Amino acid sequence: MPVEIKDMTFDKVAIGPVPVRVYQGADYAKGAPVLLYFHGGSFTQTGLVHCPLAACIASTGAIVAVPDYNAIGGGVFPKPLEVGFSIFSYLAKKRAGLGDRKSPLLIGGEEAGGNIAAGVALKARDHFADELDGQVLLSPLLDPFMASSSFRKADTIGMRQRWTDGWSHYLSGGVCHPYAAPCLCSRIAGLAPALVFSAADDPLLDETLGYADRLQEAGVTVQQHVLPAGTGWPMIYSGTSDETGPWADSLAQAFSGFVQNISIH
């Protein structure tokens, strides 16, 4: 499905106006899912830049809003989380002209954005449990210790130093709250259903699957997908991902199946 892209501002968000890029399928239907999506960028990226994963998800008929969540507060915890939760709360109440009352509301993100999405899901559980229908975690960056076996592959794609610097920046406020590092959170029951997506050659595979396992053990519904090696999935971190790469169809199918499943339940 062709995807339309437009830039706008959510000017009635409690934390202040936030620039947003919206991707939507040209032929989206009534009740189309609305996904608040947090881009990657190792906690430091700002501005409205193209997001291939958001475009891929929008091609399924979804409406995907990608905010410049680091613009307010410089990307240091807790500001990005506060911005994300503020936008989520706004969409939960008003929808900002996106979708309609039958539209399921989801949050999601890739890499550092997956961390923000997981943190917002935790806070939503504590404040708006009935408003969040699902979370989409695409290789979320969750472990500030960066100690997993798969993380050794970070050197091969040139991301170890960038992620090290990103974590140092994000946690430079001196606080490592469970919302900042969801993998360290001891209370994860009652969270919204999760779609968890990674690849066999992904440096973030172990922390992604480890979090998925903990969610399942806590009774959270999880749909888990791991692409085989060689699909180009790790290239999403460098910003050179091919939007029509082998991973695109798999992600689109996984998202569509996830939305259908949560809609049934």
What does this structure look like?
The structure is a single chain. The chain is of the alpha/beta class and 265 residues long. Helices cover 31% and strands 20% of the residues. It has helices at 52-58, 79-94, 112-127, 160-170, 205-217, 247-264, and strands spanning 3-10, 18-25, 34-38, 63-67, 105-111, 134-140, 194-199, 222-227. An 8-stranded mixed beta sheet has the order 1-2-4-3-5-6-7-8, sandwiched between helices. The longest helix has 18 residues, at 247-264. It is globular.
How much helix, percentage-wise, in residues? 25-40%
Taking the alpha carbons of the first and last residues, their distance comes to 26 Å
Low-confidence runs of at least 5 consecutive residues: none
Structural shape: globular
Count all strands and give the number.
8
Main-sheet strand order equals: 1-2-4-3-5-6-7-8
- What string, H for helix and E for strand, traces the elements in order? EEEHEHEHEHEHEH
Structural class: alpha/beta
Summed up, the helix count is: 6
Mean pLDDT: 92
Proportion of residues in extended strands: 15-25%
**Rg from alpha-carbon coordinates:** 17 Å
Largest sheet features: 8 strands, mixed
